[in-house]
């Protein structure tokens, strides 16, 4: 059996003889495998989708806060529910029951549901925290939002595939097929794996850092 090196042997090793490029690539590959396992066993639930409206989770700091009852206005200002349902394709605002599939994201009978405010948020890498504030004097509801701060460290699952075609300096047809997977985010930077295949037959697999602003 070949003895494994101890901590003293590792610390006493000549670091100038270490193959740093391969060592860094090995570390990145280990992180990529860890990210893939994380995504498989603990998949990220995308609450907001591009296909349908869904109920969004509460801000974590407010989930366990006490709920109190206050006196509301005699009248509540709402947006015409019929028009909202037609423009935003929300049939569950007008009908309820077992006929709806999937079930509506907001529980309750359709006659009890009213739309008091809407919001259209721009793209965000970190997401937003949104709070609905009701003015009990006027009955109007206002949505206020703040972009969340980017975390220092989190696993992500961002993929990209691209196909490029054009000419080189000799006016020859060239193409490039590329795939990219970003698996770890550190603030505005991310670790990713990239593979590409060129028309000449050359193929590459690389690990790198992506910085976005």
Features:
213 residues, alpha+beta, 2 domains, two-stranded antiparallel sheet, 3 helices, 6 strands, elongated
In words, what does this structure look like?
- There is one protein chain.
- The chain has 213 residues and is an alpha+beta fold.
- The protein folds into two domains: 18-45 and 150-213, no CATH class; 60-147, no CATH class.
- 16% of the residues lie in helices and 29% in strands.
- The protein has three helices and six strands.
- It has helices spanning 7-11, 20-41, 81-88; strands spanning 128-134, 141-147, 154-167, 173-186, 189-198, 203-211.
- Strands 3-4-5-6 form a four-stranded antiparallel beta sheet.
- The model has no long low-confidence stretch (mean pLDDT 80).
Task: Please give the largest β-sheet.
Answer: 4 strands, antiparallel
Structural class computed from helices and strand pairing = alpha+beta
Strand order of the largest sheet: 3-4-5-6
Instruction: Point out poorly predicted stretches.
Output: none
Total number of helical segments? 3
The coarse silhouette is elongated
**Average residue-wise pLDDT:** 80
Portion of residues in beta strands equals 25-35%
Compressed to H and E, one letter per element, the order equals HHHEEEEEE
- How many independent structural domains? 2
**CA(first)-CA(last) distance:** 52 Å
What is the count of β-strands? 6
Give the % helix. Answer: 10-25%
How large is the radius of gyration?
27 Å
């Amino acid at each position: 059996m070949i003895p494994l090196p101890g901590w003293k042997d590792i610390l006493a090793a000549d670091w100038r003889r270490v193959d740093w490029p391969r060592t860094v690539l090995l570390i990145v590959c280990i992180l990529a495998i860890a990210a893939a396992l994380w995504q498989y066993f603990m998949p990220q639930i995308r609450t907001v989708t591009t296909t349908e409206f869904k109920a969004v989770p509460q801000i974590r700091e407010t989930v366990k806060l006490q709920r109190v009852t206050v006196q509301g206005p005699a009248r509540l200002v709402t947006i015409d529910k019929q028009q909202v349902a037609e423009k935003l394709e929300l049939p569950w605002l007008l009908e309820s029951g077992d006929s709806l599939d999937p079930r509506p994201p907001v529980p309750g009978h359709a006659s009890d549901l009213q739309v008091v405010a809407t919001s259209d948020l721009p793209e965000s890498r970190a997401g937003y925290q949104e709070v609905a504030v009701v003015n009990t004097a006027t009955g109007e509801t206002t949505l206020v939002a703040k972009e969340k701060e980017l975390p220092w460290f989190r696993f992500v699952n961002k993929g990209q595939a691209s196909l490029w075609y054009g000419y080189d300096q000799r006016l020859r047809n060239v193409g490039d097929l590329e795939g990219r997977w970003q698996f770890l985010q550190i603030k505005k930077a991310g670790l990713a794996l990239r593979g590409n295949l060129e028309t000449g037959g050359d193929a590459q697999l690389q690990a790198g850092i992506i910085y976005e602003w």
